[in-house]
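Sample intake sheet
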Amino acid sequence: MTTLAHTRGAARLHAAFEQARTEGRAAFIPYMTAGYPTAAGFPALAQTLLAHADILEVGIPYSDPLGDGPTIQRASEQALAGGTSTRHSLALVAGLRAQTDKPIVVMTYVNPIYAVGPREFMRLAQRAGVDGLILPDLPPDQDLEIAELAAEHGLAVTFLIAPTSTPARVALVARACTGFLYAVSVTGVTGAREGAALGEVPAMLALAREHARAPIAVGFGVKDAATARQVAGVADGVVVGSAFITAAANGQDVDALAASIRAGCVR
């Protein structure tokens, strides 16, 4: 069995976090749903985000995304209606990989992996140039086959913790993550929110750092430079998704928003 902590993807992700740290900032991790706003329009939108990203997160559209708020749910519905399947999503990632050497992680739920077949999914992800998987609905102490198959194919794995996670769960998840640990800033689903982005995050991260072998990124609720700056003060990475989907849907300047949020990731 491949050692989970030592994969090609983990090394590339950790290097990106370390480069950001040496520049005095948290790593900037923008998110975009594959196939949004259309399969033809996705590459240009993703490239806009990549120009500012340290790591790009691409979401595979799914019909029952329990952890996603209405903004990303609508983006997934639109992508699915346009014919973007799991296989097509990975093909879109392959197109991005041909244009960039920055790390790319894929966020997916377990069902799309099983719909393709775990081994075939990992093969396709590896061939597409994916560096890691974010698995929001897979407890790291269950279905170890997926994490092991990911490692066999050079892919890092990322699991999530939330303010409601018990200390034992935080410790378990922190030890299991090989790419980075994804800390949810608020209880609930994804989406930009009013008010501070931190809440119980500092205490949660302090506990997680006692066990984590990988960097820690924070997402859910980060929408602008101000909220990014709050998160950058306590985390290794800042994840932003719904704000970019909303901007794209409203015809706003995604490039300017990405540049502003990246600038807000300074410490």
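Comment: The chain has a mean pLDDT of 92. The chain has one domain: 8-263.
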